[in-house]
Amino acid sequence: MTDTPTTPADTAAEDDAFEQKAVRMAKRARLIAERANAGGGAYPVSVPVTDTIPALRARFGELEAGDETGVTAAVAGRVVFSRNTGKLCFASLQSGDGSRIQAMVSLAVVGDEQLARWKELVDLGDHVYVRGQVLSSRRGELSIMVEDWAIASKALMPLPNMYTELNEETRVRSRYLDLIVRDQARQTVRARTQVNASLRQTFAAHDFIEVETPMLQIQHGGASARPFVTHSHAFDAELYLRIAPELYLKRAAVGGIDRVYEINRNFRNEGADSTHSPEFAMLEAYLAYSDYNGIADLTQELIQNAATAVAGSTTVTWADGTVYDLGGEWDRISMYDSLSAASGVTLTPQTSIDDLRALAAAHGVAEPPHATHGKWVEELWEHFVKPGLTRPTFVMDFPVDTSPLVRDHRKIAGVVEKWDLYVRGFELATGYSELIDPVIQRERFVAQATLAAAGDLEAMRIDEDFLRAMEHGMPPMGGMGMGIDRLLMAITGLGIRETILFPLVK
After folding, report:
1. pTM above 0.85, yes or no
2. The dihedral sign for the CA sequence 36, 41, 47, 53
3. Residue 157 CA to its chain's centroid (Å)
4. Which of the 8 DSSP states describes residue 15?
5. Could you tell me which of 53, 223, 66, 63 has the C-alpha nearest to residue 128?
């Protein structure tokens, strides 16, 4: 990420913020002096709220202009708008969900001293407690006619302009500001909560059990990815941050948890772009006595239910206004067949690396690192087929050498029963008919270890404990993994840095 050059406008903004902070610090000192006999400190430990702003809006949102309720309520919120006139001050108080209510501070109600204190002490950004009658102003705005008030917490730094769009860097680096000023940021946080709740509800309906597996692991595995490495002083051992929970969830399946899933944090020491983050949230699930077709059916149901939870239907509207249909039955296409059709060349698991390299050279496709037959096929598929996918699509049946944890295809030699789900042009989820034969699994691990020895940092290592678990009998099963951040991307149309509340940035 490149540094953004400082402009004169930036410098002026910094100078203004410095001056405002000095003024606000002086007001804080006054609050401390006023509270010297009330327990000390600038702010009360708590304030006696009786209602929330959203609750009052739900209860009294239909008042006509000028209506009075006779109901006294006490709320707190952040000041996001303020207008002081001679005998009457107005402020908009905002709750965490963006709901607002107007506070009206009148000389006739609070008196000279409290009106003057309000004008002198209250700034934009402050958290303020108010108590008074709920009414509708003459302009029809839901309001509280303030009888008592207090500054619950003072903002020492000014808020950004509430009516100017924050740039992406500010939104990502200062998410707290983003949440204060932008509806979309608040909606995305709530959408994520709705998605996770929906996922759990769908799993519960299918009798799945949610578990937790280790984040710190002696042996990393379950995906082809470069791990983060750390050191345990207690064990004097090198440990790895989890790249996937797969091998532990499969251990749980060996132990008899036939329907198991986990929503977890994973860490991969890789590049960051619009669809990748070094730290991300992931869902993995395993369904015993099923296969990659059964787990594909479940994955489609999970995603469609999550979309409905957020958008009210499987037709979603992205942040840019695009309408995208996640409904219906999704297409399932063969990787080799779709690549052959798009390239005009018949390609099979038996096609030589030289032929694949020649096809790539003819179309300007770069050679993948540590190229094998499977890596060439996947690279060519991404070039020829991926850009043309619009609807949600399961891409079925992958090369065996790129999928060391997947069962051989029951009919096609050199292929494994694996799918990748593409939505919105990116890979959203992957699913397998899981490899359950420990003898074949050991052979696959040995092949991966050979690649690792040759310098492939994403290759897997031999995991003897996992193999020992398999030797106790692993049931046939379908398994899937899906990025939660990417699921939010598919539903909202946002980039990955927007769907992660606090993404890692340089």
Report:
1. yes
2. positive
3. 28
4. H
5. 53
For the annotated binding site, the residues are 420, 427
pLDDT single digits (tens) 213-229: 999 988 887 777 888 99
List all residues 6 or more positions away from 410 whose beta carbon is below 8 Å from its beta carbon. 417
Query: SS in 3 state form for 376-410?
Result: HHHHHHHHHCHHHCCCCEEEEEEEHHHCCCECECC
DSSP state of 502: S
Residues contacting residue 73 through CB under 8 Å, at least 6 positions apart: 50, 51, 56, 131, 132, 133, 134, 144
**What pairing do the DSSP bridges indicate for beta strands 68-84 and 88-94?**
antiparallel
Asked if 100 contacts 79 with a C-beta cutoff of 8 angstroms, the reply is no
Task: Report pLDDT for 7.
Answer: 59
Which helix (H) or strand (E) is 232 found in, with range? strand 229-232
Please report, in range form, the residues annotated as the binding site for Mg(2+). 420, 427
Which residues on neighbouring strands pair with residue 68, listed in sequence order?
Answer: 135
User: What is d(CA 398, CA 384) in angstroms, rounded to the nearest whole number?
Assistant: 16
In the DSSP assignment, the letter for residue 255 is: T
Question: SS3 for 97?
Answer: coil
